[in-house]
Structure formats: structure tokens, C-alpha cells
Amino acid sequence: MASPTSRRDGTEVPGVLPSIPLSADVVPPDSASIGSLVSEASRHLSTVLKGELELAKTEITGEVKKGLQGSIFFIVALAILLFSLFFFFFFVVELLNLWLMPWASNLIVFGVMLLVAGLAALIGFRRVRKIRAPRRTIDSVKGTAAALRRIHLRSAEIGRASCRERV
Description:
Helix content: over 70%
Order of helices and strands: HHH
Distance between the termini: 66 Å
Radius of gyration: 32 Å
Structural class: mainly alpha
Shape: rod-shaped
Mean pLDDT: 80
Number of helices: 3
Low-confidence stretches: none
């Protein structure tokens, strides 16, 4: 008999999907103080943010794996193309041999290959030089951190004010 975590074809299936509970203990709202409610709300916010980050990480990991698997075929095609170019250059040399001396046709093909390689290196250098830090992302993260700090400070002030009222 098959186990609950395996299919008929033998592949594994996860049993219970992991989840993040919001809280282990439930406090009735009548008996909870403002400080404990604020603490519980911040704990829930932290749990939700952790869950969102975990979801984003899982989705991104899956998409990156798909991209890497697909890119293998591009790498194979590129390798075959590079090996084919070797024979193409021999063909060009032999074609030029019909009109020129062999040393001249080899020199012409070599010069053209160096020119194309130098042009490709120059274009690559210019593209790499344009890479900058992700400013919008950095600014967005700083803004989110500042907003969360303000919320935390306000909740701390509310908690202190409620403590003063009781005293």
C-alpha cells in the first residue's frame, strides 16, 4: 500500500503544506490591554511580512530554476554555432585562395576575426560600464523602513500613554 506522501507512479508529494499561524494564543479583546493589542498587532504584521517574503522567495526561486533549465539549450546552441564558425572561416580562406595567395587569404580572415572580436569587446565594455546600483529599489526599501519606524514609534507612544492613564 502506498504512503500518503507518494503517488502511484512513485513520485513524492508533500503531506501538509507549511503555513505560518498568526498567533498561538487567542486573547479575548475584552481582557486585553492596549499595549498587548499593539504588541499582538506588531507580531501579526511581522508574521505577514515574513510570509510575504517567503512567498516571494519561493516564486523567484522557481522562476530562476525554469530560466536556468531553458538557458541550457541556448548554451548548447551557442557551442554548436561556435564550432561551426571554425569551419566557416576555413571555407572563407579556401574561397579567397582562388584569387589570392594562401598567406594573404589567411591574413585577411585573421584580420577580420580580430576586428569583429575587438568590436564585440568594445560594445561589451560600454554595456558593462553603464551598470548602476538599483536606486529605485534602494529608495523604496529606505522609505518602507522609515514608514515602519514611524508606525513603531507611534504604537510605542500609544502604549506609554495608555500606561500613564492607568497610573
